[in-house]
Every structure is written in C-alpha cells, then in structure tokens.
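HUMAN: You are asked to prepare a plain-text protein record giving the amino acid sequence and the backbone structure tokens, both parts labelled.

ASSISTANT:
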Amino acid sequence: METKVKGPILIFGAGGFIGINLLKKLLKQRDDVVGVSSNLKNSWRIKQNKIPKKNLYQGNLLQISSIKKIINDIKPKTIFNLAAYGAYSKQKDIEKIYQTNFISTVNLIEELKKTNFTCYLHAGSQSEYGLNAASPKEDDQLIPNSHYAVSKTATYYLLKYYGRVEKLPVVHLRFYSVYGPWEEPDRLIPTLIKQAKIGNLPQFVDGEISRDFIYIDDVIDACLLIAANLKKDYYGDVFNIATGKKTMIKELAFLTKKLFNIKKEPSIGSMKKRDWDVKNWWGNPQKMEKNFGWKAKISLKEGLKKTFNFYASLPSG
C-alpha cells in the first residue's frame, strides 16, 4: 500500500502525533518522503525518532513565501496536511486557529494548483459535528461548538469546493479520538498509561461522557489506503476515520484497572470537563468500509496494551 502512493510525498505537521507515525511508516518502505515542521530543532518527536535530515524540511504554513519554496523544492505528488492548531485546550489563540487551519490551506492548495499533484489529504476532525456527535454520517448536519471546530468545518467546505468545482484531487478526513505512541503527553490515554505503569489511575471526567478511541496504526492505514486509491469520484469528499464503537469514560477506567491489575478504584467525575465535551460522541465509519473496504482492526484493549508497551520501552522507563 505504501509503495502505491505516488511520490514525492510531503507531510505537513510531521512533528505532530499523527505526522510522525505516518512519516516513520512511509520511511520504512521508501525514501522519497519529506516531513515539514515549523521548528525542527524543538520537535521532540522528530529528535527522539532520529529522522534523517534529508527527509526533513523546515517550513512555515503561515507564510506564503515558505509554502511556495516548499512546493517548488519538493514538487510533491501526494500531500498529507496534518498540521493543526487549537485541538488542545491550551491552544487558545483564535486568530492562529483560523490562520493555521483555514487560511494556510487556501494558500497551500492555490500553490499546489500550479503543479500536477495527484492527491491531497487533509486532517479534519470529529469536532466538526459538534453538538451532533452521536454516530453521525458524513453528510449529517455540522453544529461546531468551538473555534477549532468552526475552522475545521470551514476547511471541509473549502475542500468540497476545490474537489467538486475545480476538480482537484483533494479529500477531507474526520479523525476521531486517535491514541497510541507519540501522542501529546498530557492527553487522556498517555496520562492513563503513565499512571497505570505505577499502579495508579488518574482523575476522570463524568463517566457517562463517551469517545470513539481509534489506534494510530488504523488511522495511518486509512490515510495510505485513500492516497493509494484516490479516484475522481472522491474528489472533494469526506470520510469518518473511526471505529464506530462508543466507549464511555467509566468503561475506559474499569478496562484499564482490569488490564493492568490496578487495585485502586477509579475516581470518576472528579475532573472538570472541557467546554466542548458532549456526552454521546462516537463515529460512523460505514462510508470508509463501503468505498475502501477499510475497518479499524485494533480493539481498545489491544491498543491500550500496545501503548503501555510503547511507554515501557522508552529509555525513561
């Protein structure tokens, strides 16, 4: 599958969680892959993974001159845009949310139009559904409930325009709650695993709040499958990348307790929920299965074990 994707391949947001996993997987199979990061020197994921310099490019999506230079130098055929800002509650700069998630996408695709690129995949978000989050289909109503969600929704319509009207090979992917190796350390699953390693459990939000947890390997497989099989029928289309399984926070807590033999009882509801948390939040992946034969393979139980083993293998412990 990796070898069927047309190169050169360009990955924006290569220093991020999904970006570094995609870059690593592709580099195992081929060498015409370049990861772009705005700050290579301070990217802990890139440094810890010892990515070769020849497969890296420092560039800033917020600067048109930088976008032009990257596209001119690499001349990519396949582009994965995984760069984002605002997904974490600590990222509160509203102007930067729209500049990173929407304006830079306009500038990037306008530059790509001057080339004969064959595939552009954009990282959307489950957040686009907002208040309509209980297993929605891709064409169900979007009711975004944060600036981040609004910016991603705007980008979805932008790509729909580019694909349907301008006939460009662009696709939008709505990722659900992706977890696994190299995730941001302060996120739920890494925090859970770090506590589990010492026989403990963290505080949890309302136990009835649900998520659709999808392991990173399944997400990477979905991205590569689409990139390798993009047809004109899919230009401007959108796909949910989810397991389709609703997992309540209390289920996650007790599964972790059982899996790692933790004696302590979970402290459910002791943590304040975030402004955009909604109770029934899980995905519907039927369109991906129908069009690409893709289904998430890794169960939450298996994914938590894999993530635990990853953290246990790191030099720090």
